Amino acid sequence: MGCQMYHREDKNQQRMEEFILSFGGCLSAGNRWVKMAKVMPWDVVEEEYAKSMCEAEGRKSLPGRIAYGAIYIKEQENLTDVRTVEYLQENPYAQYFVGLQEFREEALFDASMMVHFRKRFPLESIQRINETLYERMHPKAKEPPSDDCSGSEKEEPASPGEGSGNEGTLILDATVAPADIRYPTDLGLVNECRENTEKMIETLWEHTEKRGHKTSYSRKKARKSYMQIVKQRQPKAKAVQRAVVEQLEYVNKNLQTLERMLTCVGDGILSDADSFRLCTIRKVYRQQKQMAEEGKRRCEDRIVSLRQPHVRCIVRGKARAPYEFGQKLHLSVVNGFTFLEHQSWNNFHEGTQLITAAERYRKRFGVYPKAILADKAYRNRDNLRFCSKHGIRLSGPRLGRPPKEEIQADQAQAYHDSCQRNWIEGRNGIAKRRYGLDLILSVLPETAMTEAALNVLVMNVAHLLRMLLRLWGWVLRWRLAHLRYIYIIA
Description:
Layout: H1 32-39, H2 42-51, H3 64-77, H4 81-90, H5 92-97, H6 113-120, H7 123-137, E1 169-178, H8 186-205, H9 219-230, H10 237-265, H11 272-294, E2 312-315, E3 323-334, E4 337-344, H12 354-365, E5 371-373, H13 381-389, E6 393-394, H14 404-433, H15 445-489
Parallel strand pairs: 1-5, 5-6
Antiparallel strand pairs: 1-3, 2-3, 3-4
């Protein structure tokens, strides 16, 4: 490479008054927040926000556009609640997105309001906004037939060759949105129960006659026995089991002490959070006691976190993470647009959701899909019978031994389907790596589900903006070609 001359810049920072704004005091129309503001269905946002508000007189609430815009910006930029408030305070384009008429230097609201904003937009509201986005960008071509069969004959089952009116391709897959919890162990969970019950005893102790000891055991000894196992790199299974049983005895003693104290002082001393935590500890104690007595490591609705008792263990069988702890999502992709078909904290088999997803596709577009691309988990008898009845091709190998002349054609079709299924695998990866679906930070079950649905919505808006940009590029190239043609003729 040739030698380049370098000039040292002035180290003295210029004054703030001398800083030049490139947009000359007005916002640029090409900014992404300005484009998103034009795409967003604000009328639907206001309708959904009004459903969560009461009509009684009281303090005036923040506008729905600010509430929705704040939680949208959080997922778009993958920020925390505190950083979202700072981002809104610093960015004039973000303030334009949430509907402000002029730039404000002070914070618009406290960071704790973000929790209430997520509560005011439940899962159903986010799904309706997501559906509206797609409908306005892709108007429905056909209306679905009425389900009312009164006065008419029942529909006859369609033969496998029928289904010529079907259109489009539906791609299905399931994923897990992990919650922000510590990796659970039985010993750690029971020890946390012991520590929490000790704190509750401390709280109630001030309201009693203060006789004797607070606990019927030595807390130092209980802590020491727990740490002896935890500090070992690979403790033996029997030693861990004995430590769990020992900690369960301490928890049982604390629960009995709390029952006596609550009988004397009443339930109003403990806060609502502590009362809810106490109920959770009782359930954890029953589960762990049952597993210890039966020698098992599984139980129904097993709690893995005291802070988030709604979180369940989802067995995925992946090489990187065989077990994930969070909510399971069933997603579908149509024309690059992602829909959230089903969402649950409890584990479910995604193969049972195919018929529901196909019926939703029919409700959205008026027809059944021509093909459904999914993995082997969806190829059960009920799904195969449903697809055969409605003329839908379900990806995967045919039942039985195929004829030799059809092997090559089936292989080509399977390769084409696997290439198309990469759409939904890519959408899952983008949602987890870019938009934070790999770690949901919200603690409450309803707000965590809203956050996961918002990740899908934000990803769809980015896809729509890319589509509009591509469409504008095609129009611009067509106009240039048309002008060039006119110039040649002239």
